[in-house]
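Table S5 (text form). Sequence records supplied for joint modeling of the two-component complex.
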Amino acid sequence: MNSGDTAFVLASAALVLLMTPGLALFYGGMVRSKNILNTLMQNYIIIAMIGIQWALFGYSLAFGPSQGGFIGDLSYLGLQGVGAEPFKAYSETIPHQAFMVFQAMFAIITPALIIGSWVERFKFSTFLVFVLLWATLVYDPVAHWVWGDGGWLKSLGALDFAGGTVVHINAGVAALAAALVIGRRQGYGTEAMIPHNLPMTVLGAGLLWFGWFGFNAGSALAGNGLAAIAFVNTHFATCGAALGWMIVEWLVRGKPTMLGVASGAVAGLVAVTPAAGFVGPMSAILIGFLAGVFCYLAVLAKPKLGYDDSLDVVGVHMVGGLWGALATGLFACKAVNDAGADGLFFGNPAQFGIQVVAVLVTLVYSFVISVILLKVLDVTMGLRVEPDEEVAGLDLAEHQETGYSL
Amino acid sequence: MKKIEAIIQPFKLEPVKDALHKMSVQGMTVTEVKGFGRQKGIREVYRGMEYQVDFLPKVKIEVVAPDDKVESIVKTITEQARTGRIGDGKIFVYPVAEVIRIRTGETGDAAV
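The corresponding C-alpha coordinate record, covering 518 residues in total, follows.
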Protein backbone atom coordinates (compact mmCIF):
# COMPACT_ATOMS: atom_id res chain seq x y z
CA MET A 1 0.00 0.00 0.00
CA ASN A 2 1.26 3.46 -0.92
CA SER A 3 -0.21 6.61 0.56
CA GLY A 4 0.82 8.80 -2.39
CA ASP A 5 -0.86 6.49 -4.90
CA THR A 6 -3.97 6.28 -2.76
CA ALA A 7 -4.22 10.05 -2.40
CA PHE A 8 -3.71 10.53 -6.14
CA VAL A 9 -6.37 8.01 -7.13
CA LEU A 10 -8.92 9.39 -4.65
CA ALA A 11 -8.29 12.95 -5.87
CA SER A 12 -8.56 11.69 -9.46
CA ALA A 13 -11.92 10.08 -8.64
CA ALA A 14 -13.18 13.45 -7.41
CA LEU A 15 -11.91 15.09 -10.65
CA VAL A 16 -13.72 12.51 -12.76
CA LEU A 17 -16.92 13.06 -10.80
CA LEU A 18 -16.71 16.79 -11.63
CA MET A 19 -16.78 15.94 -15.33
CA THR A 20 -20.47 14.99 -15.15
CA PRO A 21 -21.61 18.37 -13.75
CA GLY A 22 -19.25 19.86 -16.37
CA LEU A 23 -20.99 17.81 -19.04
CA ALA A 24 -24.35 19.01 -17.68
CA LEU A 25 -23.27 22.62 -18.34
CA PHE A 26 -21.70 21.73 -21.70
CA TYR A 27 -24.98 20.17 -22.87
CA GLY A 28 -27.24 22.54 -20.93
CA GLY A 29 -25.97 25.62 -22.75
CA MET A 30 -26.68 24.05 -26.14
CA VAL A 31 -30.38 23.29 -25.58
CA ARG A 32 -33.18 25.85 -25.75
CA SER A 33 -34.01 27.61 -22.49
CA LYS A 34 -37.27 25.68 -22.04
CA ASN A 35 -35.30 22.42 -21.64
CA ILE A 36 -32.34 23.51 -19.52
CA LEU A 37 -33.42 21.93 -16.23
CA ASN A 38 -34.40 18.63 -17.83
CA THR A 39 -30.94 18.44 -19.42
CA LEU A 40 -29.12 19.27 -16.17
CA MET A 41 -31.41 16.91 -14.25
CA GLN A 42 -30.62 13.94 -16.48
CA ASN A 43 -26.90 14.37 -15.78
CA TYR A 44 -27.31 14.77 -12.03
CA ILE A 45 -29.76 11.92 -11.56
CA ILE A 46 -27.39 9.61 -13.44
CA ILE A 47 -24.74 10.44 -10.83
CA ALA A 48 -27.16 9.36 -8.11
CA MET A 49 -28.78 6.38 -9.83
CA ILE A 50 -25.69 4.80 -11.40
CA GLY A 51 -23.79 5.53 -8.17
CA ILE A 52 -26.21 3.24 -6.34
CA GLN A 53 -26.31 0.70 -9.18
CA TRP A 54 -22.50 0.50 -9.04
CA ALA A 55 -22.46 -0.12 -5.29
CA LEU A 56 -25.25 -2.71 -5.41
CA PHE A 57 -24.17 -4.85 -8.36
CA GLY A 58 -22.59 -2.82 -11.23
CA TYR A 59 -19.07 -2.97 -9.84
CA SER A 60 -19.31 -6.70 -9.31
CA LEU A 61 -20.52 -7.30 -12.88
CA ALA A 62 -17.68 -5.21 -14.31
CA PHE A 63 -14.77 -6.16 -12.06
CA GLY A 64 -15.82 -9.30 -10.17
CA PRO A 65 -14.03 -12.61 -10.93
CA SER A 66 -14.49 -13.27 -14.63
CA GLN A 67 -17.07 -15.71 -15.98
CA GLY A 68 -15.35 -16.83 -19.17
CA GLY A 69 -14.08 -13.36 -19.97
CA PHE A 70 -17.59 -11.99 -20.57
CA ILE A 71 -18.92 -10.75 -17.24
CA GLY A 72 -17.92 -10.51 -13.60
CA ASP A 73 -19.70 -12.70 -11.06
CA LEU A 74 -21.66 -11.48 -8.05
CA SER A 75 -18.84 -11.83 -5.49
CA TYR A 76 -18.86 -8.10 -4.74
CA LEU A 77 -22.63 -7.71 -4.51
CA GLY A 78 -23.36 -4.77 -2.22
CA LEU A 79 -19.60 -4.13 -2.09
CA GLN A 80 -19.07 -7.07 0.25
CA GLY A 81 -15.38 -7.91 0.36
CA VAL A 82 -14.46 -4.54 -1.15
CA GLY A 83 -12.41 -3.02 1.63
CA ALA A 84 -9.22 -1.18 2.47
CA GLU A 85 -6.93 -3.98 1.27
CA PRO A 86 -5.60 -3.74 -2.31
CA PHE A 87 -7.24 -5.64 -5.19
CA LYS A 88 -3.98 -7.05 -6.50
CA ALA A 89 -5.22 -7.84 -10.01
CA TYR A 90 -5.54 -4.07 -10.65
CA SER A 91 -3.18 -2.37 -8.24
CA GLU A 92 -1.08 -3.49 -5.33
CA THR A 93 -0.66 -0.03 -3.88
CA ILE A 94 -4.17 1.40 -3.42
CA PRO A 95 -7.19 0.19 -1.41
CA HIS A 96 -9.79 -1.87 -3.26
CA GLN A 97 -12.38 0.78 -2.36
CA ALA A 98 -10.28 3.54 -3.99
CA PHE A 99 -10.17 1.53 -7.24
CA MET A 100 -13.90 0.81 -6.99
CA VAL A 101 -14.94 4.44 -6.45
CA PHE A 102 -12.59 5.69 -9.19
CA GLN A 103 -14.28 3.27 -11.59
CA ALA A 104 -17.72 4.35 -10.33
CA MET A 105 -17.16 7.81 -11.81
CA PHE A 106 -16.47 6.26 -15.25
CA ALA A 107 -19.66 4.18 -15.01
CA ILE A 108 -21.53 7.42 -14.26
CA ILE A 109 -20.23 9.65 -17.03
CA THR A 110 -20.58 7.06 -19.81
CA PRO A 111 -24.40 6.96 -19.92
CA ALA A 112 -24.45 10.72 -19.21
CA LEU A 113 -22.60 11.27 -22.51
CA ILE A 114 -25.53 9.71 -24.43
CA ILE A 115 -27.91 12.42 -23.12
CA GLY A 116 -26.83 14.80 -25.87
CA SER A 117 -28.48 12.66 -28.54
CA TRP A 118 -32.01 12.66 -27.08
CA VAL A 119 -32.38 16.00 -25.29
CA GLU A 120 -35.57 18.06 -25.64
CA ARG A 121 -37.91 15.08 -26.31
CA PHE A 122 -37.09 11.91 -24.27
CA LYS A 123 -39.66 11.07 -21.57
CA PHE A 124 -38.00 11.27 -18.16
CA SER A 125 -39.41 8.04 -16.66
CA THR A 126 -38.36 6.05 -19.74
CA PHE A 127 -34.96 7.75 -19.66
CA LEU A 128 -34.37 6.47 -16.10
CA VAL A 129 -35.24 2.87 -17.02
CA PHE A 130 -33.17 2.98 -20.21
CA VAL A 131 -30.07 4.29 -18.43
CA LEU A 132 -30.31 1.70 -15.65
CA LEU A 133 -30.70 -1.14 -18.16
CA TRP A 134 -27.99 0.21 -20.48
CA ALA A 135 -25.48 0.57 -17.63
CA THR A 136 -26.19 -3.00 -16.53
CA LEU A 137 -26.42 -4.72 -19.91
CA VAL A 138 -23.95 -2.68 -21.96
CA TYR A 139 -21.50 -0.66 -19.86
CA ASP A 140 -20.77 -3.26 -17.19
CA PRO A 141 -20.05 -6.12 -19.63
CA VAL A 142 -18.00 -3.98 -22.04
CA ALA A 143 -15.96 -2.56 -19.13
CA HIS A 144 -15.34 -6.17 -18.09
CA TRP A 145 -14.24 -7.25 -21.59
CA VAL A 146 -11.72 -4.43 -21.96
CA TRP A 147 -10.53 -3.76 -18.41
CA GLY A 148 -11.60 -6.71 -16.25
CA ASP A 149 -8.98 -9.22 -15.13
CA GLY A 150 -9.56 -12.06 -17.62
CA GLY A 151 -11.77 -9.92 -19.86
CA TRP A 152 -11.67 -11.34 -23.38
CA LEU A 153 -10.69 -8.15 -25.23
CA LYS A 154 -8.01 -7.43 -22.62
CA SER A 155 -6.65 -10.95 -23.12
CA LEU A 156 -6.62 -10.34 -26.87
CA GLY A 157 -4.23 -7.41 -26.25
CA ALA A 158 -6.52 -4.47 -27.04
CA LEU A 159 -5.11 -1.20 -25.70
CA ASP A 160 -7.53 1.23 -24.08
CA PHE A 161 -5.74 3.32 -21.49
CA ALA A 162 -8.62 5.27 -20.00
CA GLY A 163 -11.76 4.34 -21.88
CA GLY A 164 -11.82 5.32 -25.55
CA THR A 165 -13.66 2.11 -26.37
CA VAL A 166 -15.44 1.41 -23.09
CA VAL A 167 -16.62 4.99 -22.56
CA HIS A 168 -16.64 6.98 -25.78
CA ILE A 169 -17.29 4.53 -28.62
CA ASN A 170 -19.73 2.70 -26.35
CA ALA A 171 -21.70 5.88 -25.51
CA GLY A 172 -21.30 7.35 -29.00
CA VAL A 173 -22.82 4.41 -30.84
CA ALA A 174 -25.62 4.14 -28.26
CA ALA A 175 -26.30 7.80 -29.05
CA LEU A 176 -26.60 6.93 -32.74
CA ALA A 177 -29.10 4.18 -31.85
CA ALA A 178 -31.06 6.61 -29.65
CA ALA A 179 -31.17 9.35 -32.29
CA LEU A 180 -32.43 6.84 -34.88
CA VAL A 181 -35.03 5.08 -32.70
CA ILE A 182 -36.34 8.08 -30.73
CA GLY A 183 -36.52 10.25 -33.83
CA ARG A 184 -36.05 13.92 -34.51
CA ARG A 185 -37.26 16.84 -32.47
CA GLN A 186 -40.37 18.58 -33.77
CA GLY A 187 -39.28 21.29 -36.15
CA TYR A 188 -35.79 19.86 -36.68
CA GLY A 189 -34.41 21.22 -39.91
CA THR A 190 -37.10 23.90 -40.26
CA GLU A 191 -37.05 25.80 -36.96
CA ALA A 192 -33.98 27.54 -35.59
CA MET A 193 -32.69 25.52 -32.62
CA ILE A 194 -30.11 27.91 -31.29
CA PRO A 195 -28.03 27.19 -28.18
CA HIS A 196 -29.54 29.30 -25.40
CA ASN A 197 -26.36 30.00 -23.40
CA LEU A 198 -23.00 29.34 -25.01
CA PRO A 199 -20.97 30.78 -22.08
CA MET A 200 -22.48 27.93 -20.00
CA THR A 201 -21.31 25.44 -22.64
CA VAL A 202 -17.82 26.92 -22.65
CA LEU A 203 -17.60 26.74 -18.85
CA GLY A 204 -18.70 23.11 -19.09
CA ALA A 205 -15.95 22.38 -21.62
CA GLY A 206 -13.41 23.95 -19.25
CA LEU A 207 -14.57 21.73 -16.39
CA LEU A 208 -14.36 18.69 -18.66
CA TRP A 209 -10.78 19.58 -19.64
CA PHE A 210 -9.87 19.97 -15.94
CA GLY A 211 -11.63 16.79 -14.80
CA TRP A 212 -10.16 14.79 -17.65
CA PHE A 213 -6.73 14.92 -15.99
CA GLY A 214 -8.24 12.68 -13.31
CA PHE A 215 -9.82 10.49 -15.97
CA ASN A 216 -6.61 9.86 -17.91
CA ALA A 217 -3.73 10.42 -15.49
CA GLY A 218 -5.69 8.72 -12.69
CA SER A 219 -6.01 5.66 -14.91
CA ALA A 220 -2.34 4.97 -14.16
CA LEU A 221 -3.74 4.04 -10.70
CA ALA A 222 -0.54 5.43 -9.14
CA GLY A 223 1.18 8.76 -8.70
CA ASN A 224 4.06 7.78 -10.98
CA GLY A 225 5.77 8.48 -14.29
CA LEU A 226 2.98 6.87 -16.27
CA ALA A 227 0.48 9.24 -14.67
CA ALA A 228 2.68 12.17 -15.74
CA ILE A 229 2.86 10.82 -19.31
CA ALA A 230 -0.93 10.49 -19.47
CA PHE A 231 -1.39 13.96 -17.97
CA VAL A 232 0.96 15.57 -20.50
CA ASN A 233 -0.56 13.74 -23.48
CA THR A 234 -4.05 14.69 -22.37
CA HIS A 235 -3.18 18.35 -22.27
CA PHE A 236 -1.29 18.66 -25.53
CA ALA A 237 -3.71 16.54 -27.53
CA THR A 238 -6.52 18.81 -26.36
CA CYS A 239 -4.60 21.93 -27.34
CA GLY A 240 -4.02 20.40 -30.78
CA ALA A 241 -7.69 19.50 -31.21
CA ALA A 242 -8.99 22.96 -30.24
CA LEU A 243 -6.65 24.46 -32.84
CA GLY A 244 -7.48 21.79 -35.42
CA TRP A 245 -11.24 22.37 -35.18
CA MET A 246 -10.80 26.14 -35.27
CA ILE A 247 -8.53 26.09 -38.32
CA VAL A 248 -10.66 23.75 -40.42
CA GLU A 249 -13.87 25.57 -39.45
CA TRP A 250 -12.25 28.87 -40.38
CA LEU A 251 -11.25 27.45 -43.76
CA VAL A 252 -14.62 25.83 -44.45
CA ARG A 253 -17.05 28.46 -43.11
CA GLY A 254 -14.99 31.61 -43.01
CA LYS A 255 -15.23 32.25 -39.25
CA PRO A 256 -13.64 30.64 -36.18
CA THR A 257 -16.23 30.03 -33.43
CA MET A 258 -16.13 29.68 -29.65
CA LEU A 259 -18.51 26.70 -29.80
CA GLY A 260 -16.10 25.18 -32.30
CA VAL A 261 -13.08 25.60 -30.02
CA ALA A 262 -15.00 24.16 -27.04
CA SER A 263 -16.19 21.23 -29.17
CA GLY A 264 -12.70 20.69 -30.56
CA ALA A 265 -11.23 20.55 -27.05
CA VAL A 266 -13.73 17.86 -26.06
CA ALA A 267 -13.00 15.94 -29.29
CA GLY A 268 -9.29 16.00 -28.42
CA LEU A 269 -9.93 14.80 -24.88
CA VAL A 270 -11.99 11.93 -26.29
CA ALA A 271 -9.39 10.92 -28.87
CA VAL A 272 -6.42 10.94 -26.51
CA THR A 273 -8.23 8.89 -23.86
CA PRO A 274 -7.29 5.42 -25.16
CA ALA A 275 -3.81 6.58 -26.17
CA ALA A 276 -2.86 8.69 -23.14
CA GLY A 277 -0.58 6.13 -21.47
CA PHE A 278 0.87 4.54 -24.61
CA VAL A 279 2.11 7.32 -26.92
CA GLY A 280 4.68 10.10 -26.93
CA PRO A 281 3.74 13.79 -26.65
CA MET A 282 4.29 14.62 -30.35
CA SER A 283 2.04 11.72 -31.34
CA ALA A 284 -0.54 13.05 -28.87
CA ILE A 285 -0.52 16.48 -30.50
CA LEU A 286 -1.05 14.91 -33.92
CA ILE A 287 -3.83 12.63 -32.61
CA GLY A 288 -5.52 15.66 -31.06
CA PHE A 289 -5.16 17.93 -34.08
CA LEU A 290 -6.62 15.33 -36.42
CA ALA A 291 -9.43 14.62 -33.92
CA GLY A 292 -10.43 18.28 -34.21
CA VAL A 293 -10.49 18.00 -37.99
CA PHE A 294 -12.31 14.64 -38.19
CA CYS A 295 -14.93 15.51 -35.58
CA TYR A 296 -15.70 18.85 -37.24
CA LEU A 297 -16.21 17.10 -40.58
CA ALA A 298 -18.40 14.46 -38.87
CA VAL A 299 -20.55 17.18 -37.32
CA LEU A 300 -20.87 18.89 -40.71
CA ALA A 301 -22.08 15.63 -42.26
CA LYS A 302 -24.90 15.11 -39.74
CA PRO A 303 -27.59 17.29 -41.40
CA LYS A 304 -27.02 15.39 -44.66
CA LEU A 305 -27.49 12.05 -42.88
CA GLY A 306 -30.86 13.16 -41.55
CA TYR A 307 -30.83 11.94 -37.93
CA ASP A 308 -31.19 14.37 -35.05
CA ASP A 309 -28.27 13.56 -32.74
CA SER A 310 -29.07 16.86 -31.10
CA LEU A 311 -25.77 17.76 -29.43
CA ASP A 312 -23.43 15.70 -31.66
CA VAL A 313 -22.57 12.79 -29.38
CA VAL A 314 -21.91 10.69 -32.48
CA GLY A 315 -19.79 13.33 -34.20
CA VAL A 316 -17.67 14.04 -31.13
CA HIS A 317 -17.62 10.89 -28.98
CA MET A 318 -18.11 8.09 -31.48
CA VAL A 319 -15.93 9.56 -34.22
CA GLY A 320 -13.37 10.92 -31.73
CA GLY A 321 -13.38 7.58 -29.87
CA LEU A 322 -12.95 5.58 -33.09
CA TRP A 323 -10.07 7.77 -34.22
CA GLY A 324 -8.43 7.57 -30.78
CA ALA A 325 -8.73 3.78 -30.54
CA LEU A 326 -7.33 3.29 -34.05
CA ALA A 327 -4.65 5.94 -33.52
CA THR A 328 -3.53 4.01 -30.43
CA GLY A 329 -2.90 1.08 -32.76
CA LEU A 330 -0.80 3.37 -34.97
CA PHE A 331 1.18 5.46 -32.48
CA ALA A 332 1.57 3.22 -29.40
CA CYS A 333 5.21 2.76 -28.49
CA LYS A 334 6.80 0.43 -25.95
CA ALA A 335 9.52 2.98 -25.32
CA VAL A 336 6.82 5.12 -23.68
CA ASN A 337 5.16 2.34 -21.68
CA ASP A 338 6.54 -1.19 -21.84
CA ALA A 339 3.32 -2.57 -20.39
CA GLY A 340 1.67 -1.42 -23.65
CA ALA A 341 2.60 -2.49 -27.16
CA ASP A 342 4.13 -1.09 -30.32
CA GLY A 343 1.69 0.23 -32.91
CA LEU A 344 1.78 0.05 -36.69
CA PHE A 345 4.14 3.01 -37.02
CA PHE A 346 6.53 1.29 -34.60
CA GLY A 347 6.74 -1.96 -36.54
CA ASN A 348 3.75 -3.89 -35.18
CA PRO A 349 0.82 -3.82 -37.62
CA ALA A 350 -0.90 -6.63 -35.68
CA GLN A 351 -1.74 -4.16 -32.91
CA PHE A 352 -3.79 -2.10 -35.35
CA GLY A 353 -5.78 -5.23 -36.22
CA ILE A 354 -6.46 -5.92 -32.55
CA GLN A 355 -7.70 -2.35 -32.09
CA VAL A 356 -10.04 -2.76 -35.06
CA VAL A 357 -11.50 -5.94 -33.53
CA ALA A 358 -12.13 -4.24 -30.16
CA VAL A 359 -13.74 -1.26 -31.88
CA LEU A 360 -16.03 -3.34 -34.10
CA VAL A 361 -17.14 -5.61 -31.27
CA THR A 362 -18.06 -2.61 -29.13
CA LEU A 363 -19.83 -0.81 -31.97
CA VAL A 364 -21.98 -3.79 -32.83
CA TYR A 365 -22.76 -4.91 -29.28
CA SER A 366 -23.64 -1.48 -27.91
CA PHE A 367 -25.68 -0.52 -30.99
CA VAL A 368 -27.70 -3.74 -31.08
CA ILE A 369 -28.50 -3.87 -27.36
CA SER A 370 -29.35 -0.14 -27.31
CA VAL A 371 -31.78 -0.55 -30.22
CA ILE A 372 -33.43 -3.57 -28.59
CA LEU A 373 -33.81 -1.77 -25.24
CA LEU A 374 -35.30 1.32 -26.88
CA LYS A 375 -37.71 -0.70 -29.04
CA VAL A 376 -38.96 -2.59 -25.99
CA LEU A 377 -39.36 0.65 -24.02
CA ASP A 378 -41.15 2.22 -26.96
CA VAL A 379 -43.98 -0.33 -26.81
CA THR A 380 -44.06 -0.59 -23.00
CA MET A 381 -43.49 2.93 -21.64
CA GLY A 382 -43.28 5.22 -24.68
CA LEU A 383 -40.10 7.05 -25.60
CA ARG A 384 -41.24 10.62 -26.16
CA VAL A 385 -43.15 13.26 -24.26
CA GLU A 386 -46.50 14.33 -25.78
CA PRO A 387 -46.15 16.68 -28.80
CA ASP A 388 -47.64 19.65 -26.91
CA GLU A 389 -45.31 18.98 -23.97
CA GLU A 390 -42.36 19.02 -26.35
CA VAL A 391 -43.47 22.42 -27.66
CA ALA A 392 -43.95 23.80 -24.13
CA GLY A 393 -40.57 22.44 -23.04
CA LEU A 394 -39.61 19.55 -20.81
CA ASP A 395 -38.84 21.73 -17.79
CA LEU A 396 -42.50 22.58 -17.29
CA ALA A 397 -43.97 19.37 -18.69
CA GLU A 398 -41.74 16.90 -16.83
CA HIS A 399 -40.59 18.80 -13.75
CA GLN A 400 -43.08 21.65 -13.26
CA GLU A 401 -40.31 24.22 -12.89
CA THR A 402 -38.43 26.62 -15.16
CA GLY A 403 -34.76 27.52 -15.29
CA TYR A 404 -35.22 31.25 -15.75
CA SER A 405 -37.90 33.60 -14.43
CA LEU A 406 -38.29 37.29 -15.22
CA MET B 1 -47.68 65.79 -23.09
CA LYS B 2 -46.14 63.34 -25.50
CA LYS B 3 -44.50 59.94 -25.22
CA ILE B 4 -41.32 59.56 -27.25
CA GLU B 5 -40.58 55.93 -28.03
CA ALA B 6 -37.20 55.30 -29.65
CA ILE B 7 -35.99 51.92 -30.92
CA ILE B 8 -32.20 52.16 -31.19
CA GLN B 9 -29.03 50.10 -31.52
CA PRO B 10 -28.17 48.60 -28.09
CA PHE B 11 -24.65 50.10 -28.07
CA LYS B 12 -26.15 53.59 -28.56
CA LEU B 13 -28.04 53.46 -25.25
CA GLU B 14 -25.24 55.02 -23.19
CA PRO B 15 -24.63 58.11 -25.39
CA VAL B 16 -28.39 58.69 -25.76
CA LYS B 17 -28.95 58.37 -22.02
CA ASP B 18 -26.04 60.71 -21.20
CA ALA B 19 -27.24 63.35 -23.67
CA LEU B 20 -30.84 63.22 -22.36
CA HIS B 21 -29.49 63.42 -18.82
CA LYS B 22 -27.56 66.61 -19.70
CA MET B 23 -30.75 68.25 -20.99
CA SER B 24 -32.50 67.52 -17.67
CA VAL B 25 -34.85 64.78 -18.83
CA GLN B 26 -36.24 63.51 -15.52
CA GLY B 27 -36.66 59.85 -16.28
CA MET B 28 -36.91 57.14 -18.87
CA THR B 29 -37.85 53.50 -19.22
CA VAL B 30 -35.55 51.15 -21.12
CA THR B 31 -36.47 47.70 -22.48
CA GLU B 32 -34.46 45.12 -24.37
CA VAL B 33 -36.51 44.27 -27.44
CA LYS B 34 -36.12 42.31 -30.66
CA GLY B 35 -37.39 43.11 -34.09
CA PHE B 36 -36.57 43.79 -37.70
CA GLY B 37 -37.04 46.56 -40.21
CA ARG B 38 -35.38 47.11 -43.54
CA GLN B 39 -32.15 45.72 -42.12
CA LYS B 40 -33.78 42.23 -42.02
CA GLY B 41 -32.16 39.43 -40.05
CA ILE B 42 -28.71 37.89 -39.94
CA ARG B 43 -27.41 34.34 -40.34
CA GLU B 44 -25.82 32.48 -37.44
CA VAL B 45 -23.92 29.18 -37.62
CA TYR B 46 -23.65 26.62 -34.81
CA ARG B 47 -21.48 23.56 -35.52
CA GLY B 48 -22.21 23.96 -39.21
CA MET B 49 -26.00 24.31 -38.75
CA GLU B 50 -26.96 27.65 -40.28
CA TYR B 51 -29.99 29.53 -38.99
CA GLN B 52 -31.70 32.69 -40.23
CA VAL B 53 -32.20 34.94 -37.19
CA ASP B 54 -34.96 37.41 -38.12
CA PHE B 55 -35.23 39.32 -34.87
CA LEU B 56 -32.25 41.44 -34.00
CA PRO B 57 -31.66 42.82 -30.52
CA LYS B 58 -32.52 46.49 -30.07
CA VAL B 59 -33.18 48.77 -27.11
CA LYS B 60 -36.46 50.65 -26.66
CA ILE B 61 -36.33 53.95 -24.75
CA GLU B 62 -39.56 55.54 -23.56
CA VAL B 63 -39.62 59.16 -22.36
CA VAL B 64 -42.70 61.22 -21.51
CA ALA B 65 -42.21 64.99 -21.79
CA PRO B 66 -44.16 68.29 -21.92
CA ASP B 67 -45.04 69.32 -25.49
CA ASP B 68 -42.43 72.12 -25.65
CA LYS B 69 -39.54 69.73 -24.94
CA VAL B 70 -40.47 67.05 -27.47
CA GLU B 71 -38.68 68.56 -30.44
CA SER B 72 -35.34 68.93 -28.66
CA ILE B 73 -35.51 65.42 -27.20
CA VAL B 74 -36.23 63.88 -30.61
CA LYS B 75 -33.35 65.90 -32.07
CA THR B 76 -30.96 64.73 -29.36
CA ILE B 77 -31.90 61.07 -29.75
CA THR B 78 -31.61 61.30 -33.52
CA GLU B 79 -28.13 62.83 -33.30
CA GLN B 80 -26.81 60.48 -30.64
CA ALA B 81 -28.25 57.20 -31.98
CA ARG B 82 -27.24 57.70 -35.59
CA THR B 83 -24.41 55.73 -37.18
CA GLY B 84 -25.60 56.42 -40.70
CA ARG B 85 -25.89 52.72 -41.45
CA ILE B 86 -29.04 50.66 -41.95
CA GLY B 87 -30.46 49.39 -38.62
CA ASP B 88 -30.20 52.63 -36.61
CA GLY B 89 -33.88 52.36 -35.60
CA LYS B 90 -36.91 54.62 -35.42
CA ILE B 91 -38.59 57.19 -33.16
CA PHE B 92 -42.34 57.30 -32.56
CA VAL B 93 -44.16 60.17 -30.83
CA TYR B 94 -47.59 59.62 -29.24
CA PRO B 95 -50.02 61.92 -27.43
CA VAL B 96 -50.39 61.11 -23.72
CA ALA B 97 -53.86 61.52 -22.19
CA GLU B 98 -52.82 61.72 -18.56
CA VAL B 99 -49.88 61.18 -16.18
CA ILE B 100 -50.29 60.40 -12.48
CA ARG B 101 -47.45 60.24 -9.97
CA ILE B 102 -48.36 57.31 -7.75
CA ARG B 103 -46.67 58.59 -4.59
CA THR B 104 -48.37 61.99 -4.43
CA GLY B 105 -51.33 61.73 -6.76
CA GLU B 106 -50.09 64.77 -8.80
CA THR B 107 -51.31 64.82 -12.41
CA GLY B 108 -50.42 66.46 -15.73
CA ASP B 109 -47.09 68.21 -16.43
CA ALA B 110 -46.33 68.32 -12.69
CA ALA B 111 -46.24 64.53 -12.63
CA VAL B 112 -43.88 64.09 -15.59
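Note: The two ends of chain B are 9 Å apart (CA to CA).
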